[in-house]
Predict the structure.
Amino acid sequence: MRHLLDIQSLSSEEIHGLLNLAENVKEILYRPIPKVPTLRGKLVLLLFYEPSTRTKFSFERACKVLSADTMSFSAKGSSLEKGETILDTIKNLYALGVNLVVIRHSLSGTPHFIAKHLKIPVVNAGDGIHEHPTQALLDLLTVREKLRTFTDRKVAIIGDIKHSRVAHSDILAFQKLGASVFVTGPAHLLPEPKEIPFFEVKPGGFKVCLKPREALQDADVVIALRIQKERHGEAFIPSLREYAQNFGLGPRELEWIKPGGLLMHPGPINWGVELAHELEKYPFQVILDQVENGVAVRMAVLLSLLSGE
Ligand code: CP
């Protein structure tokens, strides 16, 4: 693996390899001094052109645990404001001795473009509406920890499937490991027939459901997606209240899933919209486990890309 750009180009063996490594290194986080020298001397550039809490800080935490140095780029106050291109920005930062670039950008394909022009590894931390591969890896790790296996598991994803990079990576990742993926949401935010081939990977298969109950019934895992107000406002949904009524999850919807079924959300959550407030106390809600696993997964990705250099 030279870069981590998307789940699409990873094999199931590569995914299992990253999950195994994440599981192994996770114990470092619980040591009295959670630090190892493995990546000492390496410099990681964190380039976030879009807001982030979980992804950015878990990459930073992962770097610190592995003793890599970080440089954080903020578009505001940089020479981007004077018209410098992203590529020139990154080439200049590379000249400062960077060993790996983590990039989040609102334009789909930006990490792939950067990777073509740099000799160092590039990690996609979310590109537009395309993919968010490390989110899918941490989702997989969370499910594997709780349910052990993926085969014959039903994963339901509910929300704006069309514009969600998390959904796109999860749909591919869960199928690659053998689960079946059922997606649901407002009809105009579901994949169109011509887009289906991109999502059909097989083992457990992929299905688009117009009715939430069909997707959720007997699901082992349900992933609620965030309404991305910043990307397209509320233009794609008539109102948040109507969305909550038809596609928000509450105690009634969770009765449809399997007993002990996991409730996941990539965050940040719009409480009262995607998830009813009562679900904060749902016993199989694993949203903070996802965040914790984000550090272990990102440690595994950094180690895979940097330790052999
Ligand atoms: N899940 C996720 O990508 O969260 P952030 O936007 O806070 O990084």
